[in-house]
């Protein structure tokens, strides 16, 4: 039912968080588009595109674990405010530099690093805050709606940025400034959220000790450990296709900048198409099976994207890529949060979201590989690796499921437990 799909939005606090995320995602999607166009215009090299995302990925890689510790220690609202403030500052700075004609490639690297740091704190806090606001019963629904807002903005935000780039009086600089204004709106909405105490009440330890504690916690739950590792490889390789969209559309298919926005929007349309029905079913007992199907589909469709001979066939394929990636991310996030206790939500999410740092870090060597063997061949390799990771994950889950007796399955061990429902491994 449609009402079931939007059930979490009845929670006033979550609704504010959702709208704050929507405006933040709009800003983020515009910047992704503008950053790729600007990097390509300044260098016309796939390796340069990869380097920009490498810097962002390194920022996330270093600061996402610290972001998880921070969200477990302190008010998640305050963490969101400070991190969104940093994201806003980066957009304003790039807008001013480009509008005044002073943009240089190194500035893109600095802005990407700042965005990586901001996301490192913003991501774990936002997802952990979601779990805190809606509870475990509606967790899958809330995460699905969060991804719906993100992917919904991908339909029109890149296309809008593409239109702005084509208007001489606005251009890339004006696009960045509009992106900054959307980030400011998100900041004001976050101010309206009710402050809340941190879950953690024990004596505070060295943050690096707490990061290690979070890693040990994930390692102690086999299903969670496999889920984190699988997600890391799938996102790191399959999701990296977004980095090379400008090079694919302009460099391989020989089209103009405006078509890059259309390509991104096609992926988003596929994502939104799967998000609404998924929101009503993300908390079902078949979540793990569906996640495996979506994950395999994600790797397979990225592989097919590398095989697409021309733009229009690639446009169709990328819509399926968007649908599969959204299904995988939604269900993997839901399962991970369902396995983690309240005191470790932030740190578990920080480890889980390191996969996005991984895709940023992988972008640079993948860009170098693309310059050696060709971009489309590299995209095929990316899809094949993600597909292999999903197959290995599924085989490992089935192997362990066969060794477990039904009565031995318990939450926090080799099962997924969400609000009193136990989902055996391999279900």
| CATH fold name | Growth Hormone, Chain: A
Tell me, what's the shape?
Answer: globular
Whole-angstrom Rg:
20 Å
- Give the C-level CATH assignment: Mainly Alpha
CATH second-level architecture: Up-down Bundle
H-E string: HHHHHHHHHHHHHHHHEE
- Domains counted in the coordinates: how many? 1
SS summary, helix count:
16
Largest sheet: 2 strands, antiparallel
How much helix is in the residues? over 70%
Could you say which structural class the secondary elements and strand pairing correspond to?
A: mainly alpha
Number of strands: 2
Poorly predicted regions are: 407-427
User: What is the first-to-last residue Cα distance?
Assistant: 24 Å
**By CATH's scheme, which homologous superfamily applies?**
MFS general substrate transporter like domains
| Mean pLDDT, all residues | 79
In the sheet with the most strands, the strands line up as: 1-2
Percent strand: under 5%
Question: Could you explain how this protein is built, in words?
Answer:
It is a single chain. The chain has 427 residues and is mainly alpha-helical. The protein has one domain: Growth Hormone, Chain: A, CATH 1.20.1250. The chain contains 16 helices and two strands. It has a two-stranded antiparallel sheet with strand order 1-2. A hairpin with a 2-residue loop joins β1 (415-418) and β2 (421-424). α2 (12-43) runs antiparallel to α7, α3 runs antiparallel to α15 (354-373) and α9 packs antiparallel against α16. The chain is globular. The two termini are 24 Å apart.
């Amino acid at each position: 039912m449609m009402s079931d799909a939007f059930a979490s939005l009845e929670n006033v606090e979550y609704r504010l968080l959702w709208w704050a995320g929507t405006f933040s995602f709009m800003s983020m999607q515009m910047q992704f588009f503008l950053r790729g166009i600007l990097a390509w215009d300044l260098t016309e090299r796939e390796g340069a595109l990869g380097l920009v995302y490498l810097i962002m990925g390194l920022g996330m890689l270093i600061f996402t674990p610290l972001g998880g510790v921070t969200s477990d220690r302190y008010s998640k609202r305050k963490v969101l405010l400070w991190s969104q403030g940093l994201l806003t500052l980066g957009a304003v700075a790039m807008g001013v530099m480009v509008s005044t004609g002073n943009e240089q490639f190194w500035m893109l690297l600095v802005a990407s690093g700042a965005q990586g740091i901001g996301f490192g704190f913003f991501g774990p806090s936002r997802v952990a805050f979601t779990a805190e606001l809606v509870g475990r019963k509606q967790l899958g629904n809330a995460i699905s709606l969060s991804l719906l807002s993100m992917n919904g903005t991908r339909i029109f935000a890149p296309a809008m940025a593409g239109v702005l780039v084509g208007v001489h009086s606005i251009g890339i600089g004006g696009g960045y400034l509009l992106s900054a204004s959307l980030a400011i709106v998100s900041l004001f909405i976050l101010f309206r959220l009710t402050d809340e105490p941190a879950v953690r009440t024990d004596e505070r330890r060295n943050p690096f000790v707490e990061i290690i504690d979070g890693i040990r916690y994930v390692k102690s739950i086999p299903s969670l450990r496999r889920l984190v590792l699988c997600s890391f490889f799938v996102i790191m390789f399959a999701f990296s296709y977004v980095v090379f969209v400008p090079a694919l559309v302009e460099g391989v298919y020989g089209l103009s900048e405006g078509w890059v926005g259309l390509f991104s929007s096609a992926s988003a349309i596929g994502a939104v198409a799967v998000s609404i029905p998924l929101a009503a079913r993300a908390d079902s007992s078949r979540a793990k099976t569906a996640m495996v199907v979506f994950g395999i589909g994600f790797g397979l469709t990225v592989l097919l994207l590398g095989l697409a001979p021309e733009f229009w066939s690639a446009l169709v394929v990328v819509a399926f890529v968007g649908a599969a990636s959204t299904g995988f991310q939604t269900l993997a996030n839901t399962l991970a949060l369902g396995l983690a206790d309240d005191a470790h939500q932030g740190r578990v999410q920080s480890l889980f979201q390191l996969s996005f740092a991984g895709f940023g870090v992988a972008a640079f060597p993948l860009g170098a590989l693309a310059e050696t063997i060709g971009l489309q061949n590299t995209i095929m390799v990316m899809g094949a690796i993600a597909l292999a990771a999903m197959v290995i994950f599924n085989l490992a889950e089935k192997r362990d499921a066969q060794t477990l007796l039904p009565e031995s399955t318990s939450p926090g061990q080799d099962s997924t437990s969400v609000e009193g429902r136990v989902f055996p491994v391999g279900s």
